Here is the input.
Amino acid sequence: MGLQTQLRRAVAVFRFVALGYPVLLGALAFEDLLHPVAAALLVVVLVAWTAAVSHRYTRKGYEDLVVYADLAVTAAAVAVSAWALAVDGRAVPISLGPWLAGVVLAWGAAWGRRSGAVAGGVIALFGMVFRGGVSENTVNEAALLVLTGFTVGHLVRLGVEAEERTRRATERTAAAKERERLARDIHDSVLQVLALVQRRGNEIGGEAAELGRLAGRQEEALRALISSEAYQHPLDGRRDLRELVGRHAGGSVTVAAPATPVRLPAATAREVAAAVASAVDNVREHCPEGTRVWLLVEDDGGAVTVSVRDDGPGIAPGRLAEAAAEGRLGVAQSIEGRVRELGGTVTVVSGPGLGTEVEMRVPRPRTEGEADGDAHRSR
Here is the structure.
């Protein structure tokens, strides 16, 4: 049960309890009421509305139309109570008292501290207009309502943010434990097999030695992956894409990147790095030994672009479509699929004898702070 759900239930209980204030005072002064029938009808309407709106909030949450209607009904109740709860011999009618704070609490919980303060101000203004103008009682009531709306809205926002941080921390802990378990399983199975293939291939020689070399390369890449910070803490902050892409540097692969960090959310950086790794693997698999590869990382602020270019034999026109139709989905899924899920695009430029260039462009996601700001924006 989340904080908002508990708060809505607490507010519902408060509103029913607060109804006791005008009901009790009205009952004690019933013989002196100028309009006792109207007072009784007003109480019935207040009870019915409180029950209906509390049920709606508890079941459906704070819906815009219902929250606005709640304010309108409460303001109308203030105006009507000035006549229906008038007492013979008293200049000021009986007040609805704490019940008025119910709608202020709803506005603050639904839309934040400024909205809560606005709702309190509106109800206070109706009280001044219909209950004797500006006086000590109406000014005190106004101050209490405005401060209540502002304070509750602020506390609710802090509580929701704390609840979200706790949820994220729990997810990070669970994800880290799962990845540690997978890393152990990979070490005890896949890595051991790859090491065995490399060793036996070198012993046999010939084509087996080439298989052993490829197995050794994959073993190194897999060990680097499961020991990397990006793998061990995939949800912890942001990652520098240069570090992930830079692991390919060496031998026939040249990496060029900005001098400053190219920071992306960990999940985004990991997917981009996986797409780049797939493109580099394609070069090693389909191009002759010694084919040179250039990796270029660019960051223009709004998007990050990684280009993988080689001087291999190139790709014949239509070959990528044929490979996808044959079920060989290295480019279609490992590269284009990953980048497309990130909202980016992939451009492949190639031709026989011209080499191949794969350009992956990914928009820079908004930071969590920006997203939280939108989520808690007050109306």
